[in-house]
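Service request form, structural biology core

Requester: graduate student, group of Dr. S.
Request type: structure prediction, single chain
Budget code: on file
Notes: please return the result as structure tokens.

Sequence provided:
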Amino acid sequence: MTVALRLVSLSFFLFLFACQSNPYQQGEILYVNFCSNCHMTDGSGLQNLIPPLNNSDYLKNKNNVIACAIRNGVSGELNIDGKVFNNEMEAIPVLNNIEITNIINYIQYTWGDGTYAQNPEIKKALEGCAGRYGTY
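Core staff response, request fulfilled:
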């Protein structure tokens, strides 16, 4: 799906769900559009290929790492919940700092430990990992 089509879809979903009670609905829409193809809508991942997000130990206190992974992608081995994953995660450079913050907050609200991110914190983290591509 092209970036333009995703952005149009995103705009439609933002409008459609603007009145719902989910405090992280924008993050959910972004997650569904950019992340759920691999990590699944329920955060379960894809068996031994794509790591789970749902109740994953990897999410605990790692919002800065997650931000860099979303922006720049990941390659190399990751040990998550006692399993080793070694598939490359593609970068999503079209997302801005606020969108990445919204995705992280949705993930933490839904499956994580509730360590929510603030935009200034994520902006600083993204400046620190600019151009970096590898295991986080």
